[in-house]
């Protein structure tokens, strides 16, 4: 009986410590494929295109080009999220004449220009139990 009480207490107390990032995505053009969110920890890994984690999300439930997804189980730290609207579901960004043919976006950053941004421009500090970030998908 004591063991059950301790387990129940742990289950009641510790869910408050499950950290998550809610990502509100807007500007998606169609329901084809999936949304890929690559989570980076620093500029070096972003430049090398070696994310800490890649999450794939279905577009089921998308309304007016908007969908909300959750990334959980991240420890506190600095992160940046890069998005690909992977319409052909091949797991990567496709290009034609050096220009992306699929949508892309970055956490809390409005893309301007032709080169990918520095990590510092779309990174954020995650030191809370829950955080919300926004990504607007852009297309060329």
Short description:
This protein is α+β, with helices and mostly antiparallel strands and 140 residues long. 15% of the residues lie in helices and 39% in strands.
How would you characterize the overall build of this protein?
With 140 residues, the protein is of the alpha+beta class. The chain has one domain (19-136): Immunoglobulin-like (Sandwich). Helix content is 15%, strand content 39%. It is built from three helices and ten strands. The chain has helices spanning 2-13, 43-47, 119-122, and strands at residues 20-26, 34-40, 53-58, 67-72, 77-86, 95-96, 99-100, 103-106, 123-126, 130-136. Strands 2, 3, 5, 8 and 9 form a five-stranded antiparallel sheet that branches. Strands 4-1-10 form a three-stranded mixed sheet, with no helix packed on it. The radius of gyration is 17 Å and the shape is globular. Mean pLDDT is 89; it is low at 5-17.
